[in-house]
Amino acid sequence: MTSQDCDKKLFLLDAYALIFRAYYAFIKNPRINSQGINTSAIFGFTNTLFDLIKKENPSHLAVVFDVGETFRHREYKEYKANRQETPEAIRIAVPYIHQILEALKIPCMSKEGYEADDVIGTLAKKAEREGYTTYMMTSDKDYAQLVSENIFVFKPASRGNDIEIWDIEAVKDKFQVETPSQVIDLLGMMGDNVDNIPGIPGVGEKTAKQFIKEYGSIENLFAHSSELKGKMREKVEANKELGLLSKKLATIETNVPIEFNYESLTVDKPNVDQVIKIFEDLEFRNMIVNFKKTYPNIFESENGPEKDLSNSVSVTGQRSLFDTLDQDIEMKESSNWKTIENTDHLYQLTETPMAVKLLVEKLSKQNIVCFDTETTSTDSMIAELVGISFSYEKAKGYYVPFNTKDKEKTQELIEILRPFFENENIAKVGQNLKYDYKVLRRYQVEVKGILFDTMIAHYLINPDARHNMDILAETELNYKPISIESLIGKKGKNQKLFSSVPLDEQKEYAVEDSDITLQLKNKLDPQLAKDNLKKLFTEIEMPLMKVLVDMEWCGINLDIHALQDMSKELVEDLSRLEKEIYSLAGEVFNINSPKQLGDIIFDKLKLGNKPKKTKTGQYATGEEVLLKLAHTHKIIDLLLEYRQLQKLKSTYVDALPDEVNPITKRVHTTFAQTVAATGRLASNNPNLQNIPIRTPRGQEIRKAFISKDHNHKIISADYSQIELRIIAAMSKDSAMINSFNNGEDFHKATASKVFHIPMDQVTKEQRSHAKTINFGIIYGVSAFGLSEQTGLSRSESKNLIDAYYAAYPELKKYISEQIETARKNGFVETLLGRRRYLPDIHSKNNVVRSHAERNAVNAPIQGTAADVIKIAMIKIHELLHEKNYQTKLLLQVHDELVFDAPDEEIKEVSALIKNTMENSVRMEVPLIVDVGVGTNWLEAH
DNA sequence: CAGGCCCCCC
DNA sequence: TTTAGAGGGGGCCTGA
């Protein structure tokens, strides 16, 4: 489409529809900039706008905002008192978006008392009459009203880059209706799927669609409702008013008293400087690039006439139409980062042995010193030291560089530093100390003394946040440190080694890190105390860090040959499956591509009557979806098997041998102590917390984790149902506690209670259902979720949940108390006071709030379980060391500990482990630990 | 190269 | 078309 073709086109955008859409697209992972602003909505909105401009280059366009209280808002409020209110992030976003639009010279409109949809509808009709083609972006539920000859509808992309333009035929096809008015009726009937519209309670969407098709319109349906039968008739008749109101609320006003003036909706050339300034303030760095791509003409000649553009006088005049919204909302003050040049600091280079000796002397007079190692790699098992920085006073510090090529000299300097690191009386501060600890250990230096890791401190203070030093410096100290990327480049294969950076820059960067970290410590330490997190920090997390170091350091033995054999088998099986799949599909395609796979299953083979789609518009092809289709075509089983084998091969069988350390010949995972918001650990590179166990083929993989040699065995000790026991103890539910104290099969006991039958008559199926609810309770069940899981109907599931709460009344009370606590305090706590903040608990958005409410229940349980096992780990580590056992703790998998033990220790150590784990925390419910021994992990489990 | 999708674990 | 619908994680692969 060329720009000439655009002459008579008008684009109309519903601002809030776009903003909300963008906001929700990022709801699970919102974009928060360093000023703490949730920029999801602004970002998404701007992105979509740019997409539109890139694709259509519109000459005439208006972004339409809702203003004031409109008819529909009022009506709806009466129907439902707790109307959704605007999320905070959107309130913040709106003024920014206005600024952006103003800088882009894109006209805005609004009309007091009418919704954007009404304004758009009216303008569209008027434009249509004057022969213009109109493209509308409105909230989807409303557009159908406006479908007519010259009006098109376009849909924003939710995250990707594609805007779809639907023509009338396509829209009709999607709705499977003939006339626009039918579409409106249909939409009015969509009931609780459309959160603004009540619909006809009790009449399902499909049924409603059917009725309307039969009767032609909703009014007609009500007029002839006596023809309906039974329950349906009752429901339809009982809800006549609501049904009509639904339609009224869904109807768009197309007679808004507003002038239509095509010329006034002209898009001007943007004020480049102004746009860039806003993006910079918001930290939208990529958006600036996007901006330049979106307006290629303006940026073609960088030195060209674009300077004049900013002075261009042609103002669209549309701002006057927009009158009320942004006046009372002030822009958040943009903070001024101090730059390093402005900061007075004294960072000294300490190169020679003599100078380092003097430094160590100074350091030994200190009580607290912050240090940070600079290395050649982020992998502590291979990283080589490039330098170490030290700081014990604000704005002061030292940097000891090493010559990576001269090992002897490096070791010489390290020997001089050793007394400092091994001095028990000097507390050491650092960011992510586990890393430095491990690096130094490879140089035979053992860090001693009290440790303070700022990353862990911040994790305890706000577990949901990110804990990078850069971010901490910005949020806690309002200071922007030198970025590592500015020294060694963006990560990737072209990234330089830190050792290649000029010494002076190394020094500035490295010492700044120590300097800042020390300041962070001073800031975070009192916060820990204030939030009663000191104990958790000093008695659990910091000691645990050392335990983790030993675990990672030790690594685990892997039977590479077994895996290699398995890989060969898998290759054969996969290629056999591949051939069969291709022949069944009738063509060759990439089975690993969900996109291509979806097209084959749903478009070509036409399996399943209403395929689900993912956010991006592809067909969903997840395991559950495929399982439901299993009976329809042979190909499905093959695909499922293919997927399973492919996963095992790529993630485990082929990947694990690559992770074997060439020197130790063992696999060294890394435990992340600060990523899981609940307090759990996470494992990566490789992840040894998700080694298969369910399927026979998966078990073969677990079998490849073997003991050190034939004089050693693997010991696996796992807590039995720890989370259920914890929820029993924390809720103090007497029925639950009794059940555990009596050593009953808890799931069976639950089944007996909810189905009201004696224990010995519980069937397997009933026990399994009970088990599902038991876990559901931990995660926060809904009847919907339970019915999906169990295959029971939704009402059966609901009854089951009710019966469950009746059986465990105190548990029910506990759940509501947790939610109440979260509302009142803003956070919930584990047994040991580990916090999780849940600001969304106050959200007016159902989805968001419910999520927070489930977290209010789940976080303390999952977190307490994490606390318990962490204590056990520390104690066991201590005891093993004390009694000089050679048994090593290797892995932690949330409720399981895995050890490598010499044969002669197994008996004693097994007892020690069991005993320590079971008694690490005293509760009203016994903690039970099962211990297993074997030559490999599978056998031990 | 990042994010979507999927699947592995507790 | 329009979601999501039980918590917490990590990793592979495609597609731009």
Care to describe what's here?
The chain is α/β, with parallel strands linked by helices. The protein folds into four domains: 3-175 and 252-305, Rossmann fold (3-Layer(aba) Sandwich); 345-545, Nucleotidyltransferase, domain 5, CATH 3.30.420; 556-660, Taq DNA Polymerase, Chain T, domain 4 (Up-down Bundle); 723-861, Orthogonal Bundle (DNA polymerase, domain 1). Helix content is 50%, strand content 11%. The protein contains 40 helices and 23 strands. The strands form six sheets. It has a six-stranded mixed sheet, with helices on both faces. A six-stranded mixed sheet has the order 7-10-9-8-11-12, with helices on both faces. Helix 27 (623-629) packs antiparallel against helix 28 (634-653). The protein is globular, with a radius of gyration of 32 Å. The chain binds a DNA duplex (10 and 16 nucleotides) through helix 1, helix 6, helix 7, helix 26 and helix 28. Residues 698-905 form the DNA-directed DNA polymerase family A palm domain. This is DNA polymerase I.
Short description:
The chain is an alpha/beta fold and 941 residues long. The chain has four domains: 3-175 and 252-305, 5'-nuclease (Rossmann fold, 3-Layer(aba) Sandwich); 345-545, 2-Layer Sandwich (Nucleotidyltransferase, domain 5), CATH 3.30.420; 556-660, Taq DNA Polymerase, Chain T, domain 4 (Up-down Bundle), CATH 1.20.1060.10; 723-861, Orthogonal Bundle (DNA polymerase, domain 1), CATH 1.10.150.
Topology:
Elements: E1 9-14, H1 15-25, H2 40-56, E2 61-65, H3 71-79, H4 88-104, E3 108-110, H5 116-129, E4 133-137, H6 140-143, E5 151-155, E6 164-166, H7 168-175, H8 180-188, H9 205-215, H10 218-223, H11 230-238, H12 240-250, H13 272-282, H14 285-294, H15 296-299, H16 306-309, E7 346-349, H17 353-364, E8 368-375, E9 385-393, E10 396-401, H18 407-421, E11 427-430, H19 433-441, E12 451-453, H20 454-461, H21 469-477, H22 484-488, H23 503-530, H24 534-554, E13 556-558, H25 560-585, H26 594-604, H27 623-629, H28 634-653, H29 655-658, E14 666-667, E15 670-672, E16 682-684, H30 696-703, E17 705-706, E18 712-719, H31 722-731, H32 734-741, H33 746-754, H34 764-779, H35 783-790, H36 794-807, H37 809-825, E19 827-829, E20 835-837, H38 846-882, E21 888-892, E22 896-902, H39 906-918, E23 929-934, H40 937-940
Parallel strand pairs: 1-2, 1-4, 2-3, 4-5, 7-10, 8-11, 11-12
Antiparallel strand pairs: 5-6, 8-9, 9-10, 13-14, 13-17, 15-16, 18-22, 18-23, 19-20, 21-22
The protein binds a DNA duplex (10 and 16 nucleotides) through helix 1, helix 6, helix 7, helix 26 and helix 28.
